[in-house]
Amino acid sequence: MTKHEAVKAYFEPKVEELAGTLLNFNFSPEAPDSISLITNYSDKVRKKYITGDVQKEYGFSIIIVKPYSSEQDDLNLEAMNFAQAFMDWMDEQNEKKEYPDMGGNCTVEKMENLQNMPNLPGVNYEQGLARYMIQARVIYTERKTKA
Fold it and tell me: Whole-prediction pTM value?
């Protein structure tokens, strides 16, 4: 299983629980309640050890599309709270040390949000949709395989 497959498989049950849909991978449709995983980088080297082990990180963004309102109601607040709750869930998983399985020769050290609240990178006024973005990463050590 590749690291992409591992991270996608990790988030799929939560996305199905929250949105009742499948997790989109590397595309974000203009559809209400869609949730997507967009890769930013993979296997970025953070540290090299004399043993040959390497500490790496896998960076990604979670994009949540929710209905948007330009009225004086709480629709946008509810959407922001939904995205914030997803971030809080990720923090809880990190505290419990429940991580994606990055493979037999990898040990995940942490999964962390890279911000303290979701970004609002775009609003589609015509369709009444807003995109909320959560940036995160998984830090892991890849052990050198024995020859």
Answer: 0.91
Q: What angle do CA 123, 124, 125 make, to 5 degrees?
A: 100
* Other Cβ atoms within 10 Å of 114 Cβ, number: 12
SS3 139: strand
CATH number at residue 12: 3.30.2000.30
Residue 41 belongs to some domain of the structure: yes
Asked if residue 35 is part of any domain, the answer here is yes
Assess if residue 147 is contained within a domain: no
Q: What is the DSSP letter of 72?
A: S
N- to C-terminal Cα separation, the chain = 21
Residue 127 lies in a domain: yes
Q: Are 44 and 50 in contact (CB under 8 A)?
A: no
119's tokens: 């970004």
Backbone angles phi, psi at 72, to 5 degrees: -90, 75
| Domain limits for position 114 | 3-142
Give the model confidence (pLDDT) of 59-110 as tens digits: 999 999 999 999 999 999 999 999 999 999 999 999 999 999 998 899 999 9
**Residue 146: Cβ within 10 Å count:** 6
